[in-house]
Amino acid sequence: MGKIKCIFFDFDGVFLDSYNPNRKVTNFLSRYVGGKKDLPLVPDMKKVIENVAGEYMLCIISSSGTATIRSFLEAHGLRSYFTDIVGYELAAGKAKKMKHIMFEHGLASEQCVFITDTVADIKEAHQAQVRVLAVSWGHDPAHELVEADPEAIIRQPAEISAWLAHAKQCK
């Protein structure tokens, strides 16, 4: 296991609290009327980003539009933490997006980890030979995520920092 240098984050469901059942009406109105930048950030995610940003290169890989992601990050004071934001405009498929960023920055796949909330994304990470963490608060239920074989299931944002600290000790 190589030293992690880069964290790829999915956007919807990982940062954007777009699948919270307690906010269905708010999410619908924000998504289709006001735009994603008006949706809430997943609680405690800003703290996690602030904690890991000094040590890792942070990137967002998403099927959402890059301008939408940038607007959301700027609205939440997070834009400056991200080296690359890659939306649907670059390529179809997150494996291609990961490979593009790895090539551009001279990174090996074992130096990266992808944090996502869907089985499809876990499969894309495996295709790119990138380690993957699955968050349980997003789109797909935890039991489906487990079956896709991520490195770990993250149940709350603070566990991301804990997993990274553990991975650093195991290098």
How would you portray this structure in words?
The chain has 171 residues and is α/β, with parallel strands linked by helices. The chain has 7 helices and 6 strands; from the N terminus they run E-H-H-E-H-E-H-E-H-E-H-E-H. It has a 6-stranded parallel sheet with strand order 3-2-1-4-5-6, sandwiched between helices. Helix 6 links the parallel strand 5 and strand 6. The chain is globular, with a radius of gyration of 15 Å. The chain starts with 5 loop residues before the first strand and ends with a helix. Residues 24-34 have low confidence and may be disordered.
Helix-strand blueprint:
Elements: E1 6-9, H1 24-34, H2 45-52, E2 57-61, H3 66-75, E3 82-86, H4 94-105, E4 112-116, H5 119-127, E5 131-135, H6 142-147, E6 152-154, H7 158-169
Parallel strand pairs: 1-2, 1-4, 2-3, 4-5, 5-6
